[in-house]
Design goal:
2 domains, alpha/beta, Rossmann fold, globular, about 40% helix, 11 helices, five-stranded parallel beta sheet
Length: about 280
């Protein structure tokens, strides 16, 4: 039996649940899989042989309550790796894997280059608790990264990095991009006329110029493939980034900042031409 553990009942997790059931039902080899939703307070079940944990909270509970393999999905890579540090025995026994929420660096850089070829200096803010491995950049691009040590210094650091960057690239760092900080970050970047590149459609809706992201539905189909593979060989795949991605554009912000940006289908074509092929 496959168990589905959701971090909460908000829309993204419900969308993942619905899409995962649909993906499994569409595959004849997985028709026997059942996916009862397990609430956060519920303990383990001896009949369970695989847990799909959706989000960080669900992953923590799955690791604590189940002695079976766990596939963690819709989690930031940094958050997942931090959890592994707390569960070293799990890590060594290789009974946990993940499908990350964030995009690989090379895909993000390819996206920026395809969407904004004249914006070559990429600003990044990150907290000290976030393990970040800065990427090798394509020719013509440079990285302007700054660690923010406390909430009190965030907006001073933001002002500084916006002065010396062409774009501000959001990372899935909840210490910086919390709900209480996001509005002010968006307003400050807009006032400085430095476009913000988000990590979801919600960021685009809130005022980011654009974003490259994977939807709950896209991640669900990838998780379904992992479940089917596990049913066949009892092994989880290695931790991996999303295979499929979507592109969001806020044309109103583009117009206000007087930035020309191509539509998503053209950006994707440019990325594919540059070698970043994805579904």
């Amino acid at each position: 039996m496959v168990r589905l553990v959701l971090s909460d009942s908000t829309a993204p997790y419900q969308q993942f649940s619905t899409a995962l059931n649909k993906a499994l039902s569409a595959t004849s080899t997985a028709n026997k899989a059942t996916l009862p939703i397990l609430e956060l307070h519920t303990g383990g079940d001896k009949k369970t042989n695989l847990v799909i944990a959706v989000g960080i909270k669900a992953t923590e509970i799955a690791l604590a309550d189940f002695d079976v393999p766990v596939l963690s999905v819709m989690v930031p890579k940094a958050g997942y790796e931090a959890l592994l540090e707390k569960h070293l025995l799990r890590k060594k026994s290789k009974t946990i894997s993940a499908i990350y929420l964030d995009q690989p660096w090379n895909r993000q850089m390819s996206f920026i280059q395809a969407a904004l070829p004249k914006h070559g200096i990429i600003g990044i803010l990150y907290s000290p608790n976030t393990h970040i491995v800065l990427p090798r950049l394509p020719q013509g691009m440079s990285l302007n990264a700054k660690s923010v040590r406390s909430g009190e210094t965030l907006f001073a650091a933001l002002e500084n990095i916006l002065e010396s960057s062409d774009v501000l690239l959001v990372t899935p760092d909840s210490e910086i991009y919390s709900s209480s900080n996001l509005r002010n970050i968006l307003l400050t970047s807009y006032r400085k006329k430095v476009p913000l590149i988000g990590i979801s459609q919600a960021y685009v809706n809130a005022g980011a110029l654009c974003a490259i992201f994977s939807t709950p539905e896209q991640i669900a189909w990838q998780a379904a493939e992992a479940i089917i593979s596990f049913a066949q060989n009892r092994q989880l795949p290695e931790p991996q980034y999303p295979a499929s991605f979507s592109i969001g554009i806020n044309q109103q912000v583009a117009n206000s900042l007087e930035i020309e940006i191509a539509p998503p289908e053209i950006i994707r074509q440019r990325m594919e031409k540059a070698g970043e092929g994805a579904r």
